[in-house]
Amino acid sequence: MAATSAPVPAYPDDPSRRGQRPNVASADVRLPAVRSYEQVDREIAATLHPSLGWFALLGVAILCMLIGAATWTYQIYEGLGAAGYHPPVMWGVYIVTFVFWVGIGHAGTLISAILYLFRAGFRTSIYRAAEAMTVFAVMTAGLFPILHLGRPWKFFYLIPYPNWRLIWPNPKSPLVWDVFAILTYLTISSTFLYVGLIPDIAALRDKETNPVRRQIYANMALGWRNSDREWRHFARAYLFLAALSTPLVLSVHSVVSFDFAMALTPGWHATIFPPYFVAGAIFSGLGMVFTIIIPIRKYFHLEHYVTLNDIDAAAKMCLFTSLVVGLAYLTEFQIAWVSGSTYEQDYFWNRVFGQWAWAAWIMLICNCVLPLSLFSQKLRRNTTWLWMLSLTINLGMWFERFVIVVPSLSHEFEPWRWSTYAPSWVDYCILLGSFGWFFMWFLLFIKQLPVLAISELKEVLPPKMRHPHVTSSQRAEHGGMANPLMNQPPLGGSH
Amino acid sequence: MQGVLGAFHEIDGAVHAIEDLGKHRFKDITVYTPTPRHEFEDVLARGPSKVRVFSLIFGLAGVTFGYWIAVWMSDYWPIVVGGKAIATWVPYTIFGFEVMVLVGGLATVYAMFGLAGLPRLTTTVGYDPRFSGGDYGVWVETTSDRADEAMELLRRHGAREVRSER
Fold first, then answer.
1. Per the count of CB atoms within 10 A, which of A296, A351, B24, B165 is most buried?
2. Quick one: which H or E segment has residue A194?
3. With bands split at pLDDT 50, 70 and 90, how would you rate the model's confidence at A428?
């Protein structure tokens, strides 16, 4: 049995509270190597200086994006036939990748909103990167339904607005539900990201020496001055945005799952789809969070902010969602088994032992078997292992969507319609382009705006005191002052 | 706008200064703090933010509009699907919910901007860039005849720098 280290007292300076654990882990427990607000400002601002490595990565991302853009141009010229569709498989890589990116976009809001409401302290150091990841992932996902259109320039037909055609979208179609859900999610996630950034941008504005950048930051900060009035309304608005975003996270992938569950196709028509999709989305999003945050932590030397404890906690969440996803896979098989429907049973047999077995087993190994390693604390705290595991999770979750979309369409009710499907080079190039597009935005983000939340990190640090050794009991002896200053936990560990 | 600005390194000094200013009937006090702190909330006792009212009202407006637009679209261009009613409430809950979150969320942010006085074109009077770093600022709006008294109070509680601004 591993030896456990002695617990660090939450309030070391205050004997009357020494035995207590705060609701939110305080800085002396969570960020022992961070000493002052100035250190936070200095070290986070240092991440904004571009380097050769960053330019090289940005170049690769832009190149991939250009490959995708050129391929799309080719597809528009040639028609959708270039994309490897083969009846009856008329939903292929584009829809698979659409669901994949929407899923990636779930962890950010989960971490920034849901964990905020639960006052999970480990969220503070990782939520900004996760939130930015969400916005860029949803931006990427939003491209795919448009890519999938034969005439993509008419995508705006899906938006309900008074028009000369006198045509309105059909509100009973799950595709229209998607438009509402994803546009709402993109708008609210972007707003949430921006609102959280305002105090940090103001801090950058006040430190910036380059006049052009300073002016840009000044415009973006909207004249924020850190006044008590601003913080009071900010804290309330942030809380309400988190409260509104929380059901939104759950609803968006539920709505995406309706694209499938509303059809009668074997393998799709299941009531388990909404929770199954949501769990999978959070799982894949956490995988991408690790893919992004671990290199950022290493490259920018932020190990004392994104601590192993934070990573450990996020890895536990990843393990939990992996178990939920595994349970959902088993439940699907169980439902097919007891359903009495030969179509369902045959479909699931074909999925695991038939023509799509290779894809299904990649999915099962990556999503259910390998994440079991996270039961080991040693591996949860091994960032190299965790990063490699995150890549397999990304791969496994892409294949999960492939296994949902393609085998169902290729193996429907009539055997004479059974077919196969192979993506074309156009699909692969556009898939590559989507990664280029996503990482281009993310790389631009991390060099223009703070990748860690400056004001929230400061909030978990104990403030400077004139009389730091006066305890609450001593204050009580002196008549109990109106302002209980000493060692008070921060305002929610975040705003 | 005329007043006195005190810059503090330590939070307890700033809090005690605000308490003392209150006792001396200085009413118009603004605190600048790099992070929101309970200590200032307690001593200033401003009361709850009104942002919640906007969230509620616009959230309700959003859910109403969401249901209405879906019902209206169905009614304007009726399509019978699977023998179901033209306007089917259950799936339209998606529209109601999404538009509620969209309108309620955006209204919350705009309300925050409005109530906090953002965007603001200038940050100069009564503000110092140090207050987004590590220092705390206490700005007291006062007339010139009481400025010395306010400055003295701020210094007494450990203000590292006190200046009069207008």
1. A351
2. helix A174-207
3. very high
**Chain A residue with Cα closest to B12:** A465
- What's the whole-number mean pLDDT along residues A69-92? 91
| Residue range A100-127: mean pLDDT, rounded | 88
Q: Are residues B60 and B106 in the same domain?
A: yes
- Between positions 102 and 141 of B, the ones with CB within 8 A of A are 102, 104-106, 108-109, 111-113, 115-123, 127, 129-134
- Same domain for B61 and B110, yes or no, is yes
CA angle, A249 then A254 then A257, to 5°: 135
* Same domain? B29 vs B67: no
- Using the Cα atoms of residue A116, residue A118, residue A123 and residue A124 in order, give the sign of their dihedral: positive
> Residue A28: is its pLDDT beyond 70?
no
Last residue of a domain, one of B116, B138, B154: B116
User: Does residue B34 share a domain with residue B75?
Assistant: no
Domain ranges of chain A: 47-459
- CB within 8 Å of chain A, chain B residues 49-68: 49, 51-52, 55, 59, 66
Helix axes A174-207, A228-261, angle to 10 degrees: 150
Beta carbons of B134 and A255 less than 8 Å apart: no
Facing residue for A223 by CB, picked from B41, B119, B134: B119
Rg (CA), chain A: 25
Instruction: Note whether B112 contacts A234, CB cutoff 8 Å.
Output: yes
Look at residue A300 and tell me whether its pLDDT is greater than 80: yes
- Provide DSSP, A16-65: GGTT---SS--HHHH-TT---HHHHHHHHHHTTS--HHHHHHHHHHHHHH
Quick one: pLDDT band at residue A419, thresholds 50, 70, 90?
confident
Nearest residue of chain A to residue B70 (CA atoms)? A171
Question: Closest chain A residue to B44 measured between Cα atoms?
Answer: A228
CA A324 and chain centroid, separation: 18
- In single-letter form, the type of residue at position A385 comes to W
DSSP structure class, residue A446: H
User: Do B112 and B91 fall into the same domain?
Assistant: yes
Is residue A230 within 8 A of residue B118, CB to CB? The reply is yes
Token pair listed for A62: 């832009």
Task: Tokens for A42, please give them.
Answer: 């200095």
For residue B155, the domain's CATH number is 3.30.70.120
Q: Encoding tokens for residue A349? A: 């047999």
B148–chain A nearest CA distance, Å: 23
Quote the pLDDT of residue A479: 39
The domain total for chain B is: 2
Return mean pLDDT, chain B.
Answer: 90
Verify that B150 and B99 share a domain, yes or no: no
User: B65 is in which domain, residue-wise?
Assistant: 51-116
In single-letter form, the type of residue at position A307 comes to: T
Checking ipTM against 0.90, whether it exceeds it is yes
